[in-house]
Amino acid sequence: MSQTLSRAAALLTALAAAALIGVPAAGASASAPPPPVRYAALGDSAASAPGVPDEADAGCMRSTHNYPHLVAARLASATLTDVTCAGADTGTLTSEGQFDALTQDTGLVTLTIGGNDVGFTGIIVKCSALGLLDPSGKPCANSYGSGLDDRIRAAEPKVAAALRTIRQRSPRARVLLVGYLNLIPDDARTCRPRVLFTGGDMAFLNDFENSLNTMLARVAHAEGADFVDNHPASADRDVCRDDATRWTEGLIPTNPSIPFHPNARGEQAMADAVLAATTR
């Protein structure tokens, strides 16, 4: 074989090998890495993770180990803009500038919202106080009656409007509406003093939690977003579980957090659920 033919054969062999193993042959340019994914995290204290170390923003009680930060750390080439803030509701998404984090090239948006629109934390605190005063009755159910259903119905169009605003500002983004962890145990009798809800009020509060979760799922579906349902996985991780098991703290937290909010394990579980949703 002539020298020219030998060189040609060697070149063909090298090109074939490169194609098989996915390595560019000499002189071929490697494909450019994918551009960073712009990730905007919006929402309330369930997303900002107050009390979970370490604090990144005192005003919003935002943690460096909230679920958005954990998600961004595990997504390749992600750039995070985290504007989650304790106390946020659908109104403050606009008035306090959370929507300003959205751009035309945002690729991923997570939103945890609705709890403050229905007054969830205030309800839990009031029901704790009522349970302390009347431990054997149903003081919470008697106090609120059907009024909690009215709150959920009133919040539904507000959550829908928030999702529409996200779609308008970031039309190419994958939008995830991230639901809340399960808080209420099935049986409060072994839970005092971690919570002060009465046994008679547990079903009432559990129904309220489930109704809020159902509303969020319904709105997400209607507005073309994906709903991340954290309720089933956290069913055995409620406030009445032991220190090493629970994902949400009770009235007297023993893991770093604030009352009735996710601890570090809860935020990690929410991050896992969001990451799983991004691959579907």
Question: Care to describe what's here?
Answer:
Its EC number is 3.1.-.-. This protein has 280 residues and is an alpha/beta fold. The protein folds into two domains: 1-31; 36-278, SGNH hydrolase (Rossmann fold), CATH 3.40.50. Helices cover 41% and strands 11% of the residues. The strands form two sheets. The chain has a five-stranded parallel sheet, sandwiched between helices. Helix 3 (67-74) packs across helix 9 (264-278) and helix 7 packs parallel to helix 8.
CATH topology of the largest domain: Rossmann fold
Q: Indicate the percent of residues in helices.
A: 40-55%
CATH 4th-level superfamily of the largest domain: SGNH hydrolase
> Could you name the ranges where pLDDT drops below 50 across 5 or more consecutive residues?
1-30
CATH architectural type of the largest domain: 3-Layer(aba) Sandwich
Compute the CA-based radius of gyration. 24 Å
Extended strand count: 7
The helix-and-strand class reads alpha/beta
Any idea what the shape is?
A: globular
Mean pLDDT: 88
Strand residues, percent: 5-15%
Give the CATH class of the largest domain. Alpha Beta
First-residue to last-residue Cα separation: 55 Å
Largest sheet: 5 strands, parallel
How many domains in all?
2
Strand order of the biggest β-sheet: 4-1-5-6-7
